[in-house]
Amino acid sequence: MEQGSASTSVLVIENVDIDVTNVKGQAIKKVVHDLNLDLRAGEMLALVGESGSGKSVTSSSILGMLSKPLRMTGGRILVNGASIGSMSEKELRSFRGRHIGYLFQNYQGSFTPFLTIGKQMVEIIRRHTSTTAKKAKETAMGWLERVRLPAERAFRSFPFQLSGGQLQRASLAAALMLKPSLIIADEPTTALDVVTGEHILDLLRELKEETGCAVLFISHDLSHVFKRADRMAVMYAGHVIETGSTDCVSRAPQHPYTQLLMQARPRLTNLSERLTTIPGEPGAVSRAGCCFAPRCPYRTDRCLTVPSMNIIHHEHAVACHERLARGEP
Fold first, then answer.
1. In angstroms, rounded to a whole number, what is the distance separating the alpha carbons of residues 186 and 47?
2. Do the beta carbons of residue 140 and residue 160 sit within 8 Å?
3. Which residues contact 163 (CB under 8 A, 6 or more apart)?
4. Contact at 8 Å (CB) between 101 and 183?
5. DSSP SS3 for 117
6. What is the pLDDT of residues 136-163, one digit of tens each?
7. How confident is the model at residue 70 (pLDDT cuts 50, 70, 90)?
8. Per-residue pLDDT, 218
């Protein structure tokens, strides 16, 4: 839905299709459809939607780490102007560390359990730079301090010796210490308690502002998104159906799916109120028309047969026949 150029954007995703393929490499089911996103330096873009909407598949494609049987069958992904799809696996391994940092949904996936945190951080630094072991240790210790960990103890600890919050802080230090221009944070607070999760996200935003990196923040928690993201993109069944500034989308959501997501949020002001649910089967999609038509309370016959086109007004974009019929800008 949004276009950008490699010269002005850290991340550019243009017309990307991702399919499930058979053993012969032939596409049998599309899971991401004609995806277009743009992310600039110093910006946090949130990717939101129900489970199974394609958020994590999108992040894996940016890393060049789609697992079989998934395959990118169309479009291109550029990070700092370099095409992810044209790199060999060896080139990708080098490129990821220097240009892309990743925060795992499961913080325990950031480190192997058999080596100390410090040894792993030093190895990462030395693999991607020509620095000495002593200098690498100084760098690692410095970043552990910057994420507010007791650096000496954390450096000597095995992963199981740190709490979940401490381990996610160490993961953030490992992701940022090579100063990548792009950080992908894929549900980084899912396995943490609420207070620790808030601290991790505050720290991520603080370090983003300090280093100027771009952050792709994948989340299903709209409260986190509204509080921290500059822009947001809403996904449904592999389609981006609404994008815009977080302030604009949160105040005036235009797509029926986005509106229903907002209404489904629990509100502390009235705990006795029943939660709103989105009708229909999660992930149900129309074969020919708007992807959300089978579940949409406003659908018309046109919605079921004609694909919805993007309507853009002041960088707020939405794909919805119903909005077009109302004549809204």
1. 9
2. no
3. none
4. yes
5. helix
6. 999 999 999 999 999 999 999 999 999 9
7. very high
8. 94
Distances (CA, A) of 139 to 124, 155, 162, 175: 11, 11, 20, 13
Q: How far is Cα 18 from Cα 317, in angstroms, rounded to an integer?
A: 22
pTM: 0.88
HSE-CB at 138 with a 13 A cutoff on CA atoms is: 5
CA trace torsion 124, 129, 134, 137 (10° rounding): -30
Mean pLDDT of the chain: 87
Question: Residue 110: CA atoms inside 13 Å, Cβ hemisphere, count?
Answer: 34
The mean pLDDT of 176-197, rounded to a whole number, is 88
Residue labelled with tokens 């220097």: 98
Among 193, 12, 183, smallest CA distance to 110 is for 183
Q: Which amino acid is at 149?
A: L
- What percentage of the chain reaches a pLDDT higher than 90? 54
Strands 316-319 and 310-313, by their bridges, are: antiparallel
- Alpha-helical regions (H) of the chain: 55-63, 89-99, 117-128, 133-146, 151-156, 164-176, 194-211, 222-228, 246-251, 256-263, 301-305, 321-326
The shares of helix, strand and coil residues in the chain, as percent rounded to the nearest 5, are: 40, 25, 40
Question: Max Cα separation, the chain?
Answer: 68
Residue 233 confidence (pLDDT): 96
d(CA 175, CA 181): 11
Backbone angles phi, psi at 150, to 5 degrees: -70, 95
